[in-house]
Design a protein that fits this description.
It is a single chain. By secondary structure, the protein is of the alpha/beta class. The chain has a single domain (about 10-260), classed as Rossmann fold (3-Layer(aba) Sandwich). Helix content is about 25%, strand content about 20%. It has five helices and twelve strands. The strands form three sheets. Strands 1-2-3-6-7-8-9-10 form an eight-stranded mixed sheet, with helices on both faces. α3 crosses α4 (about 145-155).
């Protein structure tokens, strides 16, 4: 199968939507793992959305809700609570679970997503019926960004009934190989793969191990006063986050601050 590029107007970066998405991503760190739904009252719990429920499985949490002014559902995935420990334990082994046997994804990330997929789909189906929309925004920070990317790929690759309008990730690691990334070049959705200065996480797993980022990088400077919409269709832009590779992309603090929102379990809750 030959993949063809499909750049559309949906590739335009929308900073206001990204600001809402980063709040949703951070809110996942603030929700409890109780079976009783939380009150939507944390510091990052934006009033622009209606929170519905969350799914907690295998140490991961996904939050779900409805964005009224967009007539859109959302799913937001929580990142890891221990960045360095997670990086140290990334499984660099790839697996090939899709119909296109050349598409490889990181084994640990995919296994976690696959363990949650049925429950995630069930909640989305219930919300789509309740709100009468199949439009969907998917977001997440850190490992949550990887799970968001896998969710988008799964929904698009299986021709699901959902219209994935936006995939917005913050400090996401690389998820799959170049073949995986190439599929996103032809999907008609807006992707914002937001990176911050010298954040270390977007640089794992390493490219020499056969990993590649999906398109859509938006690189913010240290104090988030400026950003660059990167030229990464078909490969990472060496003038964006990758400009600090291979030796200077080492910042944990940059990973824990996105769009001036303090991220993580010790962040803005």
């Amino acid at each position: 199968m030959t993949l063809c590029s499909s750049m559309t107007m949906t590739d335009t970066y929308d900073a206001s939507t990204a600001q809402m998405a980063v709040s949703l991503s951070q809110s996942t760190y603030c929700l409890s793992e109780s079976v009783i739904p939380d009150a939507w009252d944390c510091a990052s719990c934006t009033p622009l959305v209606t929170y519905e429920t969350s799914v907690v499985m295998y140490g991961e949490l996904a939050a779900f809700g409805y964005i009224g002014d967009r007539d859109s559902l959302f799913v937001a995935y929580r990142g890891t609570s221990n960045i360095q420990n997670w990086i140290d334990n990334v499984q660099v082994r790839q697996m090939y679970p899709y119909s296109d046997s050349e598409v490889g994804v990181e084994h640990g990330m995919y296994s976690l997503y696959a363990s949650m997929r049925s429950e995630v789909r069930s909640v989305l189906d219930d919300m789509a019926l309740k709100h009468g929309t199949s439009r969907l925004l998917i977001t997440g920070h850190s490992l949550g960004g990887a799970l968001a990317t896998l969710t988008a790929f799964d929904l698009l690759n299986t021709e699901s009934p959902y219209v994935v309008s936006d995939l917005i990730t913050f400090g996401s690691p690389r998820v799959g190989n170049m073949r995986f990334a190439e599929y996103f070049d032809m999907y008609d959705l807006r992707i914002a793969r937001v990176t911050h200065n010298y954040d270390m996480v977007p640089h794992v797993p390493e490219t020499f191990m056969g990993y590649a980022h999906v398109r859509g990088e938006v690189w913010y400077n240290e104090d988030a006063t400026e950003y660059t919409v990167c030229s990464d269709l078909g490969g990472e832009d060496p003038n964006c986050s990758n400009s600090c590779a291979p030796m200077s992309c080492t910042s944990v603090s940059d990973h824990l601050m996105y769009l001036n929102v303090s991220m993580g379990s010790d962040g803005a809750c």
